[in-house]
Design brief:
This protein is an alpha/beta fold and 276 residues long. It has 2 domains: 126 residues, 3-Layer(aba) Sandwich (D-Maltodextrin-Binding Protein, domain 2), CATH 3.40.190; 97 residues, D-Maltodextrin-Binding Protein, domain 2. The chain contains 9 helices and 10 strands. α2 packs antiparallel against α9.
Length: 276
């Protein structure tokens, strides 16, 4: 049962006792949205335990896992610094992160899109990046000339399991044959390089990075905005969300978040929008 639900039940019980003349309710802790920055509830005392997948891809993450930079690495580090805490990085596979149940971290930052389905079993911070889906193909492949969503319908499309990229394929492209689903970005990347798929769909920044750095002869033919935001993921009912949202709000209002995006991501965002 969620912490918030327990508080509601306790509050109702106290209200009944008050009406029965048995005394008033005592003070209880606040909701999961309340958090004291001076004394945040942490998974491990004295440190902010932050999870991400392995491997962690640039430009989201750069450098040594003990001292990540990159966009998400810097966002997490800035949050920790403003909370006056060191970071302890840990590994959490993407596909496991949004599963229900207890978490062995304070939050996970790993290009995880906030969705209603995921919010049923985990909690999210406010969004820290507006995402679009990117479409990566080989320059000499059958998808190279595609200009629209309809041009992709008869091609073999791949995406990672559990991603909004796969949702985009199924809900918007609606290919004539079922998409091929992979456990990781690496698996889908290899499938594109070897010709097992004609198209790989994932978040825009990652497709451009793969084009520029990892897959020779590839190109991003377009992007498709879906009103998606990445959020930091927490165990359901974790009151630390309130602290992180407070710090994130400061980072937005003072321009820090925008500066980090320009530093790490701007070069990856200039891609034409696919027509329907």
């Amino acid at each position: 049962m969620r912490v918030r639900k327990r508080f509601i039940l306790i509050g109702l019980l106290f209200a009944v006792l008050l009406l029965a003349g048995c005394g008033g309710p005592s003070e209880e802790a606040g909701s999961t949205d309340e958090c004291e920055l001076s004394n945040p509830p942490l998974y491990e005392k004295g440190a902010l335990t932050v999870a991400t997948d392995k491997p962690a891809y640039p430009p989201w993450f750069k450098g040594d896992p003990k001292n990540y930079s990159g966009y998400e690495g810097d966002v997490a580090s800035e949050i920790a610094e403003r909370m006056d805490l060191p970071i302890k990085w840990t590994v959490e596979p993407f596909n496991k992160s949004y599963a229900p149940g207890a978490k062995d971290f304070d939050f996970d930052i790993n290009e995880i899109t906030i969705t209603p389905e995921r919010e049923k079993v985990v909690d999210f911070s406010n969004g820290y990046f507006d995402n679009a889906q990117g479409v990566l193909v080989m320059k000499d492949g059958p998808a190279a000339g595609a200009k629209s969503i309809s041009d992709l319908k008869d091609l073999t499309i791949g995406a990672q399991v559990g991603t909004t990229g796969l949702d985009f394929v199924n809900e918007t492209i609606r290919p004539t044959t079922d998409p091929k689903v992979y456990d990781s970005t690496n698996d889908a990347k290899s499938a594109l390089e070897s010709g097992q798929i004609d198209v790989f769909v994932t978040d825009l920044v990652t497709t451009v990075y793969l084009r520029d750095v990892e897959i020779d002869g590839s190109t991003v033919i377009g992007k498709y905005p879906r009103n998606e935001q990445f959020g930091m993921l927490f165990e359901e009912g974790n009151p630390l969300v309130g602290c992180v949202n407070e710090v994130l709000g400061e980072m937005k209002s003072d321009g820090t978040l925008e500066e980090l995006q320009k530093k790490h991501l701007q070069q990856y965002l200039d891609v034409p929008t696919l027509k329907k």
